[in-house]
Amino acid sequence: MQELKIRGGRLLKGRIHVSGAKNAALPALAACILVDDITVLHNMPDVRDVTSMCQLLESLGASVNRYGDAIHVDTRGMTQWHAPHDLVRKMRASVLVMGPLIARFGRAEVALPGGCTIGNRPIDLHINALRQMGAEPTLIKGEEHIICERLIGARIHFDRPTVTGTENVLMAATAAEGETVLENAAREPEVADLAHLLVAMGAQIEGIGTDTIRVSGGRTLHGADHSIISDRIEAGTYAIAAAMTGGDIVLESIDSLMLTSLWAKMTHAGVSIREKASGDICVSGCPPFAPVHITTAEYPGFPTDLQAQFMAMMCLAKGESVITENIFEDRFKHASELNRMGADIVIRGRNAFVKGIPYLSGAAVTASDLRASASLVIAGLAARDETRVLRIYHLDRGYERIDEKLACLGADIKRVAGEGP
Ligand code: EPZ
Question: How far is CA 370 from the centre of its chain?
Fold first, then answer.
């Protein structure tokens, strides 16, 4: 099993190109099922979750080819609506094929994605919404078997905003008779990006980017040529890494507006965030930081996907920070690993109390999920001595060549074959 060996204390300097967003790439690939055509997606990150989604599409009968950062998806002649459990099990976002399969075939068989290390991740909001649109789900041996003779437009009110729930219903609604209104819809930029792809395919959608989205269904969609947005979570991760090391980096090709909540908190912590006329973002800063309290929330609130990374940064603050995780019920697993590096973090329910310390010390730490892994890498970059981050397959799910990109910025980081299977 591979691991990352990091010798801390090197400051990060230079320019970094932000890759396409994993969480925009996955729904965009699923949306290809809606058309009996060829769709070309650009700016697609080369990460494990995107590969898994491409494999899932191929198992459903599509042909998928990558040419650099473009992925061509030919869904002509697809006939399969059963998503194999062994593929769905690997990636929760496989649930995104449910809406498009129902839209195309009137049927879908998708294994329940199951929980993961950050929470039990139910899909009740997806299922309830699809049921309102005429779908009849039956749980058979851990798989949702859904039949839907007629998809009918409905007024869907989500009890709470759900990113993939909104995306699933958005895709199904393009094939429903009449109008579907999604209320309390997720407003993440990745949801808006999907809607823009659907419009390029011929869908009629209003309210993109707001919490109320109207879809006029029943139009035959066609293939499209679409470039997905850049990854705001990757950009935020590198910004925090730069500040943690006392560095000074320039983030290219990212829309700064997608990260206003992070910029506000980093500025409060004492980090300089400057947007240039070119659109590049300059980030410079160094510990010790001012302590900052954050509460994760749906977009445009502070993103839960940057909570772990920000916690690493607050380990080097002068004082105590309180981090409240309101989106997932079990997303503090990185805290115990940071404590192994000398951090002083106490968890009480949804709150993490982070007492700042003068420095972190290198250690062997184990990644538990994608963003926790990033948090440990960031801590290792700032720590004294050497840090070994184990189980880095989590990282490769969502960060494109993270070790290479960090090395280009001056980090002493190496990917090595570790012990164990
Ligand atoms: C998406 O997950 C992202 N994944 C996650 O990113 C991100 O953390 C999350 O949104 C929140 O922003 C993708 O887009 C592929 P939710 P999703 O449905 O859609 C509860 C990463 O690191 N809920 O918005 O699964 C749920 O348990 C990943 O890139 C229900 O109760 O998240 C959670 O507490 C991790 N019932 C909350 O809502 C449902 O039917 C928000 O979940 C659905 C969700």
Answer: 9
Q: Name all residues whose Cβ lies below 6 A of ligand 1.
A: 23, 26, 93, 119, 121-126, 160, 162-165, 186, 304-305, 327-328, 370-371, 398
Specify whether the CB–CB gap between 356 and 319 falls below 8 A: yes
- SS3 assignment, position 18: coil
pLDDT digits 0-9 by tens, 194-213: 999 999 999 999 999 999 99
Q: Using the predicted structure, report yes or no on whether residue 421 has a pLDDT greater than 60.
A: no
> Domains along the chain?
2-18+230-417 (3.65.10.10), 22-227 (3.65.10.10)
Q: Give the contacts of 245 (CB within 8 A, at least 6 positions apart).
A: 8, 9, 10, 11, 12, 286, 381, 382, 411
Tokens of 338: 């940071």
Residue 108 tokens read as 């879908």
> Cα–Cα distance between 32 and 311 in angstroms, integer?
37
User: For 349-372, how does the pLDDT look when each residue is reduced to its tens digit (9 = 90+)?
Assistant: 999 999 999 999 999 999 889 999
Q: Which pTM value belongs to this model? A: 0.97
Q: Phi/psi of residue 17, each to 5°?
A: -90, 125
Q: Report the separation in Å between the CA atom of 49 and the middle of ligand 1, taken as the mean of its atom positions.
A: 15
What distance in angstroms lies between residue 76's CA and the mean position of ligand 1's atoms?
31
Question: For residue 399, how many other CB atoms are within 10 A of its CB?
Answer: 27
Helix (H) or strand (E) holding 129: helix 124-132
Supply 17's token pair: 């190109």
First to last CA, the chain: 5
